[in-house]
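Quick look at the format.
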Amino acid sequence: MMGASYYTLRPLIPRWLQVLARRRVAARLLRKNHSCWPICGSAGALPPDWQGWPGGKRFALVLTHDVELQSGALRCEELADLEESRGFRSAFGFVPLRYRTPDQLRDGLVNRGFEIMVHDLYHDGKLYRNWRTFAKRSAAINAFLQDWGTRGFCSGAMHHNLPWISQLNIDYGASTYDVDPFEPQACGVGRIFPYWVQPPDGEGRGFVEMPYTLPQDFTLFALLEEKSNAIWRRKLDWIAGKGGMALIKTHPDYMAFRSEDKRMERYPVELYTDLLDYIRSHYEGEYWLAQPSEMARFWRGLRPAEKSSANNIAAAVTLCASCKRAHAEGWLSQYPRNTVTGTCQRPTTP
């Protein structure tokens, strides 16, 4: 994970310099991980006792957006228009204390069939710095979850500590990924399916964690400077072939809706809408288009077969230290272990 000093100094570093520095790092990481990114073969293994997606669909599709700045919030309705015109609905994650998110915007999206998530609190890279910071901020996050009428959470910059996240009043999280060597927190759960997070003693309600499985747009177009969405298509085809969950996380902040928008980190929104058109033309009737809350309800209702004991997740070699510890302690499983509800216990602090 990028050190605390980086996030302290980041506001003082010009954005163009941040992007250039990350491009150099990304080029090195691409050479190092070319054999396991964007596809890690072992991530396609089916969960034990897998019975398939609702309606017998071939694979699942979840569309999400992280809105990082006010400029992104101003693009949300236009992005929603583009999706709606193609028959898609998505989920938007807003940062409560980084910029203004009008009630009218959130309510308007929900009324149109879109979904709202809480995306961190400040998006400053400090949420998991220590338990004291997280405990204080988690209270504010829970207040926004209630105020906004959502049970979904996603971390800023994909930082995560799953046992700590279990303290939030959520049904689902979206703060991990199947494989992505370019993220600040080097990790990877090595699966293209959701999984279950709950204290090992069975107390607490637990939540469904949904890793993103298609590369983020910022990685492809800002860091690696791709000029097409061929990597998206290739990964999508592979996920469809494996019968997994294609979850994409894009950012309206980085989408250029007009040709005169030439900022270095922005890419033509057509690269995203072309992916949607590709999904429709190649897989019409074969995918289950699910909002994150629908996916969470579905996964929460799954259980291992009655005589099966295979409910543990394999420990991918790419897990970060936090996830390795959570796995070893028994926090992670394929499906819910029981239906116990109640107040989550405080996780062990590192």
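Next, a different chain entirely:
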Amino acid sequence: MEKALDVRNLAIKFDDFTAVDGISFTVSAGEIFGFLGANGAGKTTTIRAICGLLNPTSGEIYVSGKNITSNISSIKPHIGYMSQKFTLYQDLTVKENILFSGALYNMSEEESLKRMKELFRYTAFDRDENETVKNLSGGTKQIISLCASILHDPDIIFLDEPTAGISPVSRVLFWELIRKLSGDGKTVFVTTHYMDEAEYCGRIALMQAGKIIGLDSPQELKEKAFTNPLYEIDVKKDKRDDFERAVSDERVGELSVYGLHYHLEVSNESGWKMLEKGWFESYRKIVPSLEDVFIKMTKTGS
């Protein structure tokens, strides 16, 4: 498939701090590609470099086959960027914010208004365009921000934590729009720390401390990370110390704490049998989640 984005050995340093540590990846045209990682992992810094908002220390970035590290101005019309925080002017109306965004892309007022109406139909936005932005909900503001970021009809759309701080219902609706954009041929690059949202991506890059520690489809990442059975276990309160000690001593497998439960990848079936000593309230075999994958990979670094 055609490459919409090709990042090669990208490194970004701020004095002695390495924010992005020599990462490489490609994104295909029309793909929903996700960056998954905790705050500070390097996701936003990477996007800002790709969008030409900061200069990389080293490495190369190709957008639609063009090397933008030396010629960012030529590619800006093809990129839409929605930053992590609301990028709207709170005291302006919806319409005024859209017109301002259009002016940044040298669009005439007539062009901006025509495109605004198209996008409002596309996103099912039904609020008054003359309403002041500060009076709107977080989810509604994000829809306006999305419309502003794609007003110039870019080929690649970068969405940095687009659903942070909005309601669960708004998150679902926003992801419906992301899938719709991808279905219409747009390439969507999205960062998130919500594990459930990452399931919607065609492929995911897991980031930790500026490095990519895993890159594949959600299903492939799960299959690669967990080659042994995974169990969810509810241990009796007075037996938790004994259980954790036995898992370690017998090298039964990888153990993670999930609230009141444990997730245990059993790599030693004989050891598992040794643990059945009446310590459990219940246990069941489960399918690994992306959260399981992320926790395991961040422990091992790969």
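Residues 196 and 224 are 19 Å apart (CA to CA).

See the schema section for token definitions.
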